[in-house]
Design brief:
It is a single chain. This protein has about 130 residues and is an alpha+beta fold. The chain has one domain: Nuclear Transport Factor 2, Chain: A, CATH 3.10.450. It contains 4 helices and 6 strands. The chain has a 6-stranded mixed beta sheet with strand order 2-1-6-5-4-3. A hairpin with a 2-residue loop joins strand 4 and strand 5. Helix 1 runs antiparallel to helix 2 and helix 2 packs antiparallel against helix 3. The protein is globular, with a radius of gyration of 14 Å. The model has no long low-confidence stretch (mean pLDDT about 95). It comes from Streptomyces ramulosus.
């Protein structure tokens, strides 16, 4: 399998595990020392250090009822990005954001995730 095919497969596996709430499946895709950085100033913002912290963050985001609609899996020569449309609704807030989850790969696993958002103020209002 070529590097870009492996990255594409990894991107799909990550999204499938996230939507299935398969926390062990996500953990298996991460390096133990991986990091995940999200913009904003809310309960899910900042940098999660380590696979366990990253899984805890994914669980927290999912606990808000977020639908992680995959638009595209994009590959570079060595890395992968997921283009997502995340939506959720509570009685007092609506989440409707487009994002890119950019994954830096090392040895066939995710070493770093940086998430780019279309609506940071909306994210801040939703994840209180």
């Amino acid at each position: 399998m070529s590097t870009d095919e492996a990255a594409l497969t990894l991107g799909h596996r990550f999204h499938q595990a996230l939507t299935a709430r398969d926390w062990d499946g996500i953990r298996a895709l991460l390096h133990p020392d991986a990091t995940w950085t999200l913009p904003g100033d809310n309960t899910v913002s900042g940098t999660a250090d380590g696979a366990d912290a990253m899984v805890d963050r994914a669980r927290l985001i999912a606990s808000y009822g977020v639908d992680f609609a995959l638009r595209h899996v994009l590959v570079s020569r060595e890395n992968v990005a997921l283009s997502l449309h995340n939506t959720a609704r509570r009685a007092d807030a609506v989440l409707d954001e487009h994002l890119a989850t950019v994954c830096t790969l090392r040895d066939g696993r995710i070493a770093r995730i940086e998430t780019y958002l279309s609506d940071v103020p909306g994210m801040n209002a939703f994840f209180v």
